[in-house]
Amino acid sequence: MLNLVYFKEYSIKKNVHSYRQGDLFIAHDVNSGSLHVLDEGAYDVIKAIEKLQEILETVNTEGICQVLRQTGKTVIAEELSEILDELEELRKEGTLFSAEAENVLPMYPEKPIVKAICLHVAHDCNLRCEYCFAGTGAFGGSRMMMDVETGKKGIDFVLESSGHRDHCEVDFFGGEPLLNFGLIKSLVEYGRKAGKDHGKTIKFTLTTNGVLLNDRIQQFLEQEEISVVLSLDGRPEVHDRMRPYADGRGSYAKVTPLIKQFAAKRPESSPYALGTYYYVRGTYTHFNLDFDRDVLHMADLGIKQISVEPVVASPKDAYSFQEGDLEKIHEAYDRLGEELLLRRAQDRDFNFFHFNIALDQGPCMIKRLSGCGAGHEYVAISPEGDLYPCHQFVGQEAYKLGSLYDENPHQLKDEVVKSFRSAHVYSKPLCRECWARFACSGGCHAANVSFTQSLTDVYTLGCELQKKRLEVAFYLKVKEIQQDLM
Amino acid sequence: MAKHIQTIVKANLSSTAKTGGCGKCQTSCQSACKTSCTVGNQVCVK
Hints:
Helix content of chain A is 40%, strand content 15%.
């Protein structure tokens, strides 16, 4: 019989997320990370206890029965007793209603260990995407290319700042980085050698719109084992509306065959972005709330690794999400989940990045609490050599961490480093009480600042989207495991 | 076997607050997104 006294201090709302998705009732235990499938009776009992916690100080069997009856449920004493027994067993086991994780905060050395950089090799672009946070490539500044001296200093910076970490990451970013392909070639060669000299390995990635992805460049990326994130929004009309050339022509017809060709070279690409991989990445906006059709369009092109994300935009932008959009977005995620299941059964599987959920093999609690590492483990470097917490903060003077041309470039601006280090899950009032806190890690710093002007107040629409994605991700995980057990 | 509840994944995330933090995992935002924090979509590479 479930120890109901336990619930005097223990909040179900915060620590167990139970919900219905498709034909399943699912319970996610937040602190242990465990996942259970419930029958309707067990689901109703958990919800009844949760409800009682909202209205009364004590939870008892009589109260549970009362709530169940008020919601039109028939209470069968024997069945209720069985459910309470099973719940107690799981509680004792620590996989349901598990104790709240201790507030262990991430510990950092005084000097930041920067292991990853985003090199803005080109602040210019051959496209004029409507929603570009880079201001169509220039990040609010002038259009310019990074020179080789600055690029090499950037590589030296990450090798020297990464302390005992033997793996560093360098992402070539822009604008459109392939506008400065010569520099990329030089820096890969330089980075391989400099890495060796430091006893380290550099993992290179490239984020590109695909316009310049010709055979020569594809061959180079293959030969150098560079992971690539390629931008494609989906259906031709959706892509072309948001991703035109400067003269207004759409770019779909140009980039799609090249992206398909490149994706086909990497059939074994890891969904978890391990090793040398590719992802085709799109953005959805108010204009394509049925973005599941865009994901499926890409899958129908033969693309297996797909990430399509919500736009982060100012409310004044016509493409920003509006009141009433949330329900449609939720429906799109639901449809996408069901379609994925269907295609999985037909051996036409593809991967949707935001439905990745490793659970027992996922990141540790420390990583989940600390988030993306922007501003102390990860920095972005502008073409001029200025250092910022991440690519989305580039050009924002208040967040500038320093410059590669400073006397000591490793001396990052202390107050900025501290503000990012301390923007962990427990520092965010809404996150502390949220069931999704260890899966979402407090959200994107740049999105939070953009909407709330604070690193510790969150972008709440983003929270709702994240929670929905998690619900579908758990559902797909359950289905996958159930299928394996059959 | 339980009649009303089927455990799909047994995990012990809380315990990794003491054992984790090696920092070897890839920077989440670099991997596939660039506009959202995707720590929960990663795996531990330890």
